[in-house]
Every structure is written in structure tokens, then in C-alpha cells.
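To whoever picks this up:

The nightly regression suite flagged NTF2 domain-containing protein as changed. Nothing in the input moved, so I suspect the structure step. Input below, exactly as stored in the fixture:
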Amino acid sequence: MSDQRVPEIELLRAAYAAFNARDIDAALALMTPDVVWPRAFKGGFVRGPEEVRAYWTEQWSEIDPHVEPQTFYLEEGGRILVSVHQVVRDLAGAVLASEHVGHRFTLEHGLIQAMEVCPPPSSTPKA
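Regenerated output under the current build:
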């Protein structure tokens, strides 16, 4: 992994930790004011920290997702693809889904500018 990309990967690790801890303010502090975030649970995208806050608040009132980053892949254009293990439970604790997916991040000025959900990486060079 390029040492120049270590701060970006640590930023993403912190974002996952904040999400899993339900610390919305800490997670939003790692995003740009014009962040574009997928509504993976409902479809479409939200834009800006307040829309992300509203989406996550709604999501967490219906399901209990936990997302662990497994591997980081450096891509062209400064993007980072993260292979994650995602476990989604209902509010009673029953597992609804346990799967590996990809999250592709675009960073700008050391903050998350966009994320998209994609298939998990298969043979991309690892970071």
C-alpha cells in the first residue's frame, strides 16, 4: 500500500467504526458538505450530511446493520474500493442478511465525497 494513502484508509476505518457505533456526528464529520450517499436499504441516493443523517436515522429504526471493512483496494482516480462483510439484523436480533459487498469511495480534500455500493472485488490489486 502506498504510504500516501494510509490517512485515507484510516479515515474510512473511522467512518465504519462511527457507523457501527451509531455515532452519526462522528461519521458526518468525515464527509464533505456535498456528500453523495447511497440509500442501499431503500434505493436512490441522498445528498449532504443532513440527508445522510435522516436516512441513517430511518434505517436504524427499522434494521440493525453492522459493516466490517475487510480489504482496501486502491483504484485509479484516487478512489478506494472496500470489501466489507455486512450483517443486517432485525430489531429483535435475527439475522436478515450476512454477505460480502463492495463499497467504492471517492475522497476529496481528505473527506468522503461519495460512496456507492457495488459487487465485492475479485482480483483487484490490494492496498
